[in-house]
Design brief:
9 helices; 2 strands; 230 residues; two-stranded antiparallel ribbon; mainly alpha; globular; 65% helix
C-alpha cells in the first residue's frame, strides 16, 4: 500500500526514544535536579535522533534496510528496545547525582563529535558511492575493487568503520553518567555485542556474494571495525 514498513517502525522507535528522553528531562526540571550530565545526555541523544531524520536517505544503504528481514526481532527492536533501553541513562540520572569536571565534559563532547564524524561520514560515503561510483571521496577519485566495493575514505580504513562511529556515539550517551555504575552502560555494551555479531554475519554474506572480490578487499583492508585492534 505504498508504506515502507521498515522505515515506519524505525521512525516510531526513534520518536518514542526522543519523547521518553524529553519526559525524563521535564521530570528533572520539575524536581530541580537538572545537571550538566543530564544536559549532555539529552543534547547528544536529541542531535543523534534529529540527524537520523535529516539524513534518513543514507539508511537505505545500511544492513537494517538492505539485509535484515522484517520480523519480530526488527519490529520489537524498533518499538520496544530502542525507546525503552536507549533511555536508561536518563532514568538513572534522575536518581543519581553525578558531578562532571570541565575536562570530563570536553572529553565527552570529543567522543560524541568523533563518533558522529565517523558514523555519518562512513554512511554518507557508501551511499554516495552507490549512487555515483565516480564521485570523489575526500577530494580524490575513489579506489574501487572489482568495480563494486569502495576501498577509499573510511571504507579504506576498516571494513565496518561505521560500526566504530556508532559505538563511540553510544559511549558518549553513557559517559555523562560517570563510572560509578555499569547500569548506564547497558546500551554501549549491548551495541558492542550486537555489532560484532552483525559484522560476522555481514562478512559471511559478503564473502558469499562477492567471492574473490571480497577476498581482495579483505587483503586491502584487513581491519574489521577498529584499526590495529580488531
Amino acid at each position: 500500500m505504498g508504506i515502507d514498513l521498515k522505515f515506519f517502525f524505525v521512525r516510531a522507535g526513534m520518536m518514542g526514544w526522543l519523547l521518553i528522553n524529553l519526559s525524563v528531562l521535564a521530570k528533572s526540571i520539575q524536581d530541580g535536579t537538572l545537571s550538566k550530565s543530564m544536559i549532555l545526555f539529552q543534547l547528544f541523544c536529541a542531535l543523534y535522533i534529529l540527524d537520523y531524520f535529516v539524513h534518513e536517505e543514507f539508511m537505505t544503504s545500511t544492513w537494517d534496510i538492505i539485509a535484515e528481514r522484517l520480523g519480530f526481532m526488527l519490529v520489537f527492536g524498533d518499538l520496544v528496545w530502542i525507546p525503552f533501553t536507549f533511555s536508561i541513562q536518563g532514568w538513572w540520572l534522575l536518581v543519581n547525582e553525578v558531578e562532571l569536571t570541565t575536562a570530563a565534559v570536553i572529553a565527552n563532547c570529543l567522543v560524541f563529535l568523533i563518533g558522529y564524524m565517523v558514523f555519518r561520514g562512513a554512511n554518507k560515503q557508501k551511499h554516495v558511492f552507490k549512487k555515483n561510483p565516480k564521485a570523489p571521496i575526500w577530494g580524490k577519485p575513489p579506489k574501487v575493487i572489482g568495480g563494486k566495493l569502495l576501498a577509499s575514505g573510511y571504507w579504506g580504513i576498516a571494513r565496518h568503520c561505521n560500526y566504530l562511529g556508532d559505538l563511540l556515539l553510544a559511549l558518549s550517551f553513557s559517559l555523562p553518567c560517570g563510572i560509578s555504575s555499569p547500569i548506564p552502560y547497558f546500551y554501549p555494551i549491548y551495541l558492542l555485542i550486537l555489532l560484532i555479531w552483525r559484522e560476522r554475519r555481514d562478512e559471511s554474506r559478503c564473502a558469499e556474494k562477492y567471492k574473490e572480490i571480497w577476498a581482495e578487499y579483505r587483503k586491502r583492508v584487513p581491519w574489521r571495525i577498529l584499526p590495529y585492534v580488531y
